[in-house]
Amino acid sequence: MDWMTELRNMLGEHRVTDNLTTREQHSKDESYHPPHLPDVVVFPESRDEVIQVMKFADRHQIPVTPFGVGSSLEGHVIPSKGGISLDLQQMNRILEIRPEDFQVRVQPGVTRTQLNQQLKKYGLFYPVDPGADATIGGMVATNASGTTSVRYGVTRDQVLELEVVLADGRVLQTGSGAAKSSSGYHLPGLFVGSEGTLGVFTEIRLKVCGIPESILSARAVFPGIRPAVRAAQSILSAGIPVARLELVDSRAIQQVNHYNHAEYPEQPTLFLEFHGNPAGLKQDADFAGQLAENEGCEDFHFETNSLARAQLWEARHHLAYSFVHGTPGKQQMVTDVCVPLSALAASLEYARQLIDASHLDGAVFGHIGDGNFHALLMIDPTDEADVQAANQIHHQLVEHALAEGGTCTGEHGVGSGKIAYQRKEHGPAYDVMREIKQLLDPKAILNPGKMFDEK
């Protein structure tokens, strides 16, 4: 009996498929990294079925790559060694909502939007917003963050407890329902951001927050990147509890105007959001506006109406899509470095200079409240000159970030695209991470080709 037949006998014909179309859907993510077909796609519906699959894969030494919705940006879900693509979208139940404890327990296939729709009934929401409607399992796997991290933190800050199936089928319960603990090694923190290389999540307990009484959004236009960054730093220094603090450069605004038929001033722009009560928000916004004016802000406009707020954030949320849909035949390559705030203005200007000096089109934007920024580059992956230029810009930005005491990835993760920089960033700690990988996955079947260089 071949191993695919054995899998079908185990889970049923309809949940194990080698259909080419399905395999192609699971061969890629939203990145520029080249696709690679899995041999088979498996759709488990429970923890016990994940255990069965992992024991089977361990016995036959078959690679297993967990898959959510495929929204990752560094090739995480690409099954680079073939084998099994483990699609967890059928495990999409919200198992428990505990409003009095501000907690929720979910399966990994639950999406961010699905979760917030259910939490809304209790006056709660899950605050991490990476932009894409990713699965919670995928967000935990990459330690996703996004536009709200300046106020609420990143995914790692929300995870209380994880149920993890290891490579050999063993199950670990890590963490608890307590708000804090000083007991033992913090294993949840180890698995968050492990990108499917250490285990498969089957249950996740998260902290959630109360929905703010009122939300106010603002747009501040500046003559250059440096004064915009100075204004952001002034707002943070003043202790204003800003919930989102984003920068979009003039090229990005230009593309959004073209794509959405909008008329935003085509200059570096800060997008801000404040959460709280109406009286406090008015004071916060007025104070932020004053600080922005002190740094040369030419226009400070704010909205409280939900529709108007959505339109105000259009330039930021639709940025990547405005480039993708406005540049037929090209794909996006999005860099993702994070630097100390003191190095941010110079780093953003450096990124803009690198793009301008190349033949590529692109924009600079990011979560400047925490020093995480992106250069979006439009490339033809079949054009060697495009790929070479983009890789060079990516390399220069990473080297610059590391020299400034930053990191090669603030939120997208390592995947296959950032492996080359791991040893330089982590030094001897990289060897310790590899030893942990070997301990938990001695046959190297969990998402091989990610996080670690091949030996």
Walk me through what this model shows.
- It is globular, with a radius of gyration of 22 Å.
- Helix content is 37%, strand content 21%.
- It folds into four domains: 85 residues, 2-Layer Sandwich (Uridine Diphospho-n-acetylenolpyruvylglucosamine Reductase, domain 2); 117 residues, 2-Layer Sandwich (Uridine Diphospho-n-acetylenolpyruvylglucosamine Reductase, domain 3), CATH 3.30.465; 106 residues, Alpha-Beta Plaits (2-Layer Sandwich); 98 residues, Alpha-Beta Plaits (2-Layer Sandwich).
- The chain is built from 18 helices and 19 strands.
- Strands 12, 13, 14, 15, 16, 17, 18 and 19 form an eight-stranded antiparallel sheet that branches.
- α10 packs across α14.
- The mean pLDDT is 94.
- It is of the alpha+beta class and 455 residues long.
- It starts with a helix and ends in a 15-residue tail after the last helix.
- Its cofactor is FAD.
- Keywords: FAD, Flavoprotein, Oxidoreductase, Transit peptide.
- Belongs to the FAD-binding oxidoreductase/transferase type 4 family.
